[in-house]
């Protein structure tokens, strides 16, 4: 036998062990995944299970932790969660619901999507379930929440898991040391003056944190509320674009100047998480953002616990200017397990679930901002006294139908409730973020934004919708 | 991975007496060595940083400037493995393992005969065939995602690991054919002739002569196919749900827009990277031989 063939045989014998290992690993993977990814078809997972697609926010992480031991133990319905980051979950829900694939029975949708999805028939109306489930107590859900989660036909299409508005958070100790007092209902000019006064009072501390990260849900969430209260709007009632109008320009220039002069380091990349981190670490003295941030600021172990004051969203021309936002549960129209899906929603959005979170995980982690009873609960108030009242007041004063000084063509405070807004808002936000970075002027950014908005407005004018 | 960069792919030479001769160091070897070290450190540093951050608390991980000496904790790993959180990473890890292993085996079963027919016994117009294989990689995956999704929905294959196995096989097959063709082209004709003279048939030649010689090439091809399948995100995110979810999709679930997540994300990324790292280290010798033998020669 030739040498190469002998060598080859030796190699062949030596290679048996790795081949055995590969075969064993494959067999293990095949066997073990028998309970995992094999099989398909919509609504799979057994008759007593439901599939839930949700955003990865801290309140949802708590829900995952409590579901098996409580909901499943009580009802026998197992819940399979898929958890994704916000942008990914929006994409996946849009893909899943628009094709009515039926893979997921329940998904977290916001009050931006629900009226649009309801119009398209992608989500199931919940009125019948609500009427048959007296223990759920729909009347306890805050009015603006129910209103913002209803369709054009007046039916409810989503139940809030937690809701939020926006308010101003500030370091009471820093302002006190500087001899400053924060008004209960500040104007934006007062906030700008305080930001200038406290900017640099401690090493590395900026006056205020405002989002600058591109995205319709990032920089344009707080900025659109500023535009509203400065008298601006994206569109008139007749869908005339107003992005380069005086009110919009003045508000954006004020916002950009404030964040450039007294704002956080790295403002063009700062979103909710970055600003939260900045306030916790003492890098900023104030922050205008979601009321839901208060839970993290006042959580056990937070270095600023007890040092934060909360006042209403700053205003100029309007009486209030806080936004309204909710992550809510909706049932896919194509779901085969709507009854089980409602039982899950009824449990997750209930008063009892809030009490469960309070008792097991702590009252600062309660998914609040949706029920009036939450703000009458002495246990919750004992923990959340600093921000409970400003939060519920901000939500109650929010008016998605009439958030500014002029009539609007579509509902929404920090957004315009049309499917085109994520694309429009994100594209304009990229230029506004560039203006914050100093790469273009606000006027240039908004001139380009006006062209984009005109295209959208024209389509709606042609359709004759308003 | 960077771990293979420090092994010099220089073929060993022998003196007339048979003793191995040390390769002569080229001039400027010190400078080249330094450059190699700097590049190696640049590649390894993010991984080291990720591992260090994974042992920090969320607050310490989010500090700016970064705190190197923050106290160490296993909190990120506890969260990943679902201790007290109600989550379970094992189904997604097993799904990834299944999809990667099975698709890699299928790729090898299909690619080796195809590469044989394109190198050792070339078929007519074999260059056109090679170009055809390459052309299937020219369409971006995202361009085909909608038809694939609609097909999967129509055929009831959404959230089914078999769909991913088929897609990963077709995704990696052209690369594997190209690589294996390069490796098989290196097999000396004399050896094949010798095997034929010894009476070996086609299958026996393939199994006992060709396969052992190109084993490093097969190892390199397998590892690359495994890595591509293991790390694939776009198809998995679009086509899987609760049952066929793979670990890259599970990993992205740690990103949140309302809270701190860096430490648990780093812990998750480290655990998810481990199988590829282990496979890379285990096949290091074969990998270096394979990569220096054919494809990148």
From TrEMBL, chain A:
CDD domains: PBP2_TMBP_like
InterPro entries: Bact_solute-bd_prot1, SBP
SUPFAM superfamilies in UniProt: Periplasmic binding protein-like II
Domain of life: Bacteria
PROSITE patterns recorded: PROKAR_LIPOPROTEIN
Pfam family, one: SBP_bac_1
Protein name: Carbohydrate ABC transporter substrate-binding protein, CUT1 family
Organism field: Geodermatophilus sabuli
TrEMBL record, chain B:
Region of interest called Disordered, as start-end residue ranges on this chain: 1-25
InterPro entries in UniProt: BP-dep_ABC_trans_perm (IPR050901), MetI-like (IPR000515), MetI-like_sf (IPR035906)
Superkingdom of the organism of origin: Bacteria
A single GO BP: transmembrane transport
Topology in membrane: Multi-pass membrane protein
SUPFAM superfamilies: MetI-like
Boundaries of every ABC transmembrane type-1 domain copy: 93-283
Chief subcellular location: membrane
GO cellular component: plasma membrane
Subcellular localization(s) per the UniProt record: Cell membrane
A Pfam family recorded for this sequence: BPD_transp_1
Keyword Cell membrane attributed: yes
TM stretches of this protein: 30-52, 97-118, 130-149, 161-180, 209-230, 261-283
Keyword Transport: yes
Keywords on record: Cell membrane, Membrane, Transmembrane, Transmembrane helix, Transport
Record family assignment: Belongs to the binding-protein-dependent transport system permease family.
Protein's name according to its UniProt entry: Carbohydrate ABC transporter membrane protein 2, CUT1 family
């Amino acid at each position: 036998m030739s040498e190469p063939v002998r060598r080859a045989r030796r190699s062949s014998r030596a290679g048996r062990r790795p081949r055995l290992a590969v075969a064993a690993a494959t067999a293990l993977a095949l066997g073990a995944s028998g309970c995992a990814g094999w099989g398909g078809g919509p609504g799979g997972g057994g008759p007593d299970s439901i599939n839930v697609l949700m955003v990865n926010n801290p309140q949802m992480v708590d829900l995952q932790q409590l579901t098996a031991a409580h909901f499943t133990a009580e009802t026998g319905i197992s819940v399979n969660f898929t958890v994704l980051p916000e942008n990914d979950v929006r994409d996946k829900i849009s893909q899943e619901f628009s094709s009515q694939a039926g893979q997921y029975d329940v998904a977290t949708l916001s009050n931006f999507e629900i009226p649009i999805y309801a119009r398209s028939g992608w989500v199931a109306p919940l009125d019948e379930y609500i009427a048959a489930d007296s223990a759920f107590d729909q009347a306890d859900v805050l009015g603006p929440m129910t209103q913002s989660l209803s369709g054009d036909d007046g039916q409810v299409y989503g139940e809030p898991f937690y809701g939020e508005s926006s308010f101003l958070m500030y370091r009471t100790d820093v302002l006190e040391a500087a001899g400053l007092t924060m008004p209960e209902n500040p104007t934006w000019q007062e906030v700008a003056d305080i930001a200038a006064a406290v900017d640099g009072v401690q090493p590395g501390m900026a006056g205020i944190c405002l989002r600058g990260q591109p995205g319709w849900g990032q920089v344009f969430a707080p900025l659109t509320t500023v535009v509203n209260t400065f008298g601006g709007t994206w569109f008139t009632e007749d869908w005339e674009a107003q992005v380069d109008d005086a009110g919009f320009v003045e508000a954006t220039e004020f916002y950009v100047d404030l964040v450039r002069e007294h704002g956080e380091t790295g403002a063009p990349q700062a979103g909710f998480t970055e600003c939260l981190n900045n306030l916790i670490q003492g890098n900023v003295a104030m922050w205008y953002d979601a009321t839901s941030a208060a839970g993290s600021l006042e959580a056990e172990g937070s270095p600023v616990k007890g040092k934060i004051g909360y006042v209403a969203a700053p205003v100029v021309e309007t009486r209030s200017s806080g936004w309204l936002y909710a992550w809510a549960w909706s049932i896919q129209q194509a779901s085969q397990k709507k009854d089980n899906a409602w039982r899950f929603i009824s449990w997750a959005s209930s008063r009892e679930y809030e009490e469960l979170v309070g008792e097991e995980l702590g009252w600062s982690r309660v998914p609040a901002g949706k029920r009036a009873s939450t703000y009458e609960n002495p246990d919750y108030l004992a923990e959340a006294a600093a921000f409970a009242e400003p939060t519920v007041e901000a939500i109650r004063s929010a008016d998605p139908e009439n958030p500014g000084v002029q009539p609007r063509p579509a509902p929404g405070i920090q957004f315009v409730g049309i499917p085109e807004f994520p694309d429009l808002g994100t594209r304009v936000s990229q230029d506004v973020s560039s203006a914050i970075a100093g790469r273009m002027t606000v006027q240039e950014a908004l001139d380009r934004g006006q062209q984009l908005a005109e295209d959208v407005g024209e389509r709606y004018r042609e359709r004759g919708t308003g | 991975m960077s771990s293979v960069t420090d092994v010099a792919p220089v073929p060993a030479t022998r003196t007339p007496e048979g003793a191995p001769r040390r390769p002569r160091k080229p001039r400027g070897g010190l400078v080249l060595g330094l450059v190699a070290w700097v590049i190696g450190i640049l590649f390894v540093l993010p991984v080291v940083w990720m591992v260090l951050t994974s042992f920090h608390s969320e607050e310490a991980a989010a500090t700016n400037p970064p705190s190197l000496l923050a106290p160490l904790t296993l909190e990120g790993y506890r969260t990943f493995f679902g201790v007290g959180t109600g989550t379970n990473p094992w189904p997604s890890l097993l799904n990834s393992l299944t999809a990667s292993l099975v698709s890699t085996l299928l790729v090898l079963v299909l690619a080796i005969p195809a590469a044989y027919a394109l190198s050792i016994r070339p078929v007519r117009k074999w260059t056109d065939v090679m170009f055809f294989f390459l052309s299937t990689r020219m369409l971006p995956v995202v361009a085909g995602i909608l038809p694939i999704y609609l097909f999967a929905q129509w055929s009831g294959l959404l959230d089914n690991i078999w769909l991913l196995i088929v897609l990963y096989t077709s995704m990696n097959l052209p690369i594997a054919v190209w690589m294996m063709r390069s490796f098989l082209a290196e097999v000396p004709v004399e050896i094949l002739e010798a095997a034929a003279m010894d009476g070996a048939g086609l299958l026996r030649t393939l199994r006992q002569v060709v396969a052992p010689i190109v084993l490093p090439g097969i190892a390199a091809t397998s590892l690359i196919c495994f890595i591509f399948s293991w790390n694939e995100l776009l198809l998995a995110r679009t086509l899987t749900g609760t049952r066929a979810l793979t670990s890259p999709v599970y990993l992205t679930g740690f990103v949140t827009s309302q809270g701190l997540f860096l430490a648990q994300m780093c812990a998750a990324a480290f655990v998810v990277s481990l199988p590829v790292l282990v496979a890379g280290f285990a096949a290091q010798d074969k990998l270096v031989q394979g990569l220096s033998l054919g494809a990148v020669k």
